[in-house]
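User: tokens in, sequence out, please.
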């Protein structure tokens, strides 16, 4: 497999604080439309590596689109910067406006996997723009703030949105962020684990998640969600707790789906999280 280079986006050179994707990324979309640019691979067959138009960049074999979603202020941008640059954005800063993205190439079992990570605005007024990007996503990281009960209470609404707009086979993970602020915790870990144990009725089916029930889920429900519910762990963009693990687990799942031979054992996402994580949960029912 020949390796190409990935263009460096302008968005990757500075903290994501505002506006829309850089000029070499996808153009802004009108509400209700999707117009992915050359850097946004559609859900389904992922993109192989492509040549860089410039001289720089990292080699990669395959690319996947990952979205960070959740209420405004839950730490999506900080989580992305921690993973991309190994840094923490201290202090207060302007919330993301619209859509922004960063690229990072990770090594997954000898394959260079490019994650194009989209940082979305959590405010209601930008929700229609965010909807247009769901349909092209290969994976979604859904965040809440453990110090903000309202952001946790919004998770059900976000899950319903994901069901309505995302692909049936999207990889989904629930993250409780800001666990470094233990003194201010407002959401118990046990409550999040209980929420993660859902019987998933098919992400694209337009139905809200149901409490765990004996009847089988609807056709099209991803197998790992049928068996275990949502993968869940608590993270800290400030300390780096479980941040790399979350993205690495997503990359491994996506890569395995792309390359798995019929005789090859399936990658066990929940088992990997349980084995590698610090305070992570496989959320078995």
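Assistant: Sequence out:
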């Amino acid at each position: 497999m020949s390796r190409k280079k990935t263009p460096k986006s302008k968005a990757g050179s500075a903290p994501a604080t505002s506006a829309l994707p850089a000029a070499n990324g996808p153009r802004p979309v009108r509400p209700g439309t999707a117009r992915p640019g050359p850097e946004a691979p559609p859900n389904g067959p992922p993109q192989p590596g492509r040549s860089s138009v410039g001289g720089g960049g990292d080699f990669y074999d395959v690319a996947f689109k990952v979205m960070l979603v959740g209420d405004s202020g839950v730490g999506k941008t900080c989580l992305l910067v921690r993973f991309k640059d190994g840094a923490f954005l201290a202090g207060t800063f302007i919330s993301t406006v619209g859509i922004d993205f960063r690229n990072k190439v990770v090594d997954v079992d000898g394959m260079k996997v490019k994650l194009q990570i989209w940082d979305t605005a959590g405010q209601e007024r930008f929700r229609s723009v965010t909807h247009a990007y769901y349909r092209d996503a290969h994976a979604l990281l859904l965040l809440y703030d453990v110090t903000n009960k309202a952001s946790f209470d919004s998770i059900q609404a976000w899950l319903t949105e994901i069901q309505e707009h995302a692909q049936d086979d999207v990889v989904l993970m629930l993250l409780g962020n800001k666990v470094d602020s233990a003194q201010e915790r407002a959401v118990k870990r046990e409550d999040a684990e209980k929420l993660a144990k859902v019987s998933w009725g098919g992400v694209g089916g337009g139905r809200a998640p149901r409490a765990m029930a004996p009847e089988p889920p609807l056709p099209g429900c991803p197998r790992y969600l049928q068996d275990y519910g949502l993968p869940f762990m608590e993270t800290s963009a400030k300390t780096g707790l479980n941040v790399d693990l979350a993205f690495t687990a997503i990359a491994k799942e996506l890569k395995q789906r792309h390359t798995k031979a019929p005789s090859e054992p399936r990658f066990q996402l929940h088992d990997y999280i349980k084995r590698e994580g610090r305070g992570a949960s496989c959320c078995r029912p």
